[in-house]
Amino acid sequence: MRIVLNGKPCDVARERLDAVLEELGYQGDTVATAVNGAFVGRRVRGETTLGEGDQLEVIAPMQGG
Amino acid sequence: MTAFYGVELSNRLMLGTAQYPSPAILAEAVRAAGVDVVTVSLRRESAERRDGQAFWDLIRALGVRVLPNTAGCHSVKEAVTTAEMAREVFGTPWVKLEVIGEHDSLQPDLFGLVEAAEILSAEGFQVFPYTTEDLVAAGRLLDAGCEVLMPWGAPIGSGLGLNNLYGLRSLRAHFPDVPLVIDAGVGLPSHAAAAMELGYDAVLLNTAVAKAGDPVAMAAAFSQAIAAGRAAFEADPMEPRDMAAPSTPVIGKAFLG
């Protein structure tokens, strides 16, 4: 299945968001997620399923003013 | 001491974490200034590079409180979603709410700001809104649930200081009990001291320290200036006057022709 990860096309085998994050190598990291522009909390990642073309944002801390 | 959503700070300087020459210099500047609060942000994370994880480890090691921002957000939806993500990542209800309305000045969109503040306050966030000195907007932000206001001194990153002294003095006078933080535009320790002498409760800055030739020394200088400015405010400064008034007593002066 092809999704859009942080603005770039990306092929993933899994569908559940928590599994997709693991597949992409984010397991254990401090990240937050949004799917198609809506925040998806950590606790509901296991109940959230991605579909073809979905836009996944994975964000993390960075420097800010 | 002023409380920000019930939290008393030992240092009235809040420091941004961006644009330093290196992470080590950032850490040293935070320690030199002795700040309690640093601002942080969120960006896309690459699973290969994991830059965000390294930065977060650095901040956690400093043992400071974080104030996540919604920098770069130009719509209410974007700002609200960013705040929601920040709360989960950083584990704090604090958010420095920025809804930018104009590209050249990075002036806040006050209408969007009020709308986003209402939504986030209802969701349990403790909102620090980046606003202007506009009195009406200030009132609306307080009505929306904000307990702190953060007016700009000048456009972000400009270093121009306090552009509208009348407006800032007016804001302080209209809302004497609301914690007010000057956020943005401060370039020199004298600007920060002037803000504190006006009775502002804290100053938030980033570029003036990060882009100084010696960020560590400048961080310490700002910390000292802010402490001095606050002490001066509490000491009740004299009223200025137009004409000279001799400070040396003239009574008993010798008559020498």
Question: Could you please describe the fold and organization of this structure?
Answer:
The complex is a heterodimer of chains A (65) and B (257). Chain A is mostly beta strands. Chain A has a single domain (2-59), classed as Beta-grasp domain (Ubiquitin-like (UB roll), Roll), CATH 3.10.20. Chain A has one helix at residues 17-24, and strands at residues 2-5, 8-11, 32-35, 38-40, 55-63. The longest helix of chain A is centred in the first third of the chain and has 8 residues, at 17-24. Chain A starts with a strand and ends with a strand. By secondary structure, chain B is α/β, with parallel strands linked by helices. In chain B, strands 5-4-3-10-9 form a five-stranded parallel β-sheet. Chain B has a three-stranded parallel β-sheet with strand order 6-7-8. Chain B has a two-stranded antiparallel ribbon with strand order 1-2. In chain B, helix 1 packs parallel to helix 9, helix 3 (76-90) packs across helix 4 and helix 4 runs parallel beside helix 5. The model of chain B has no long low-confidence stretch (mean pLDDT 96). The chains are: A mainly beta (65), B alpha/beta (257). At the A-B interface, strand 3 and strand 5 of A face strand 4, helix 2 and helix 3 of B.
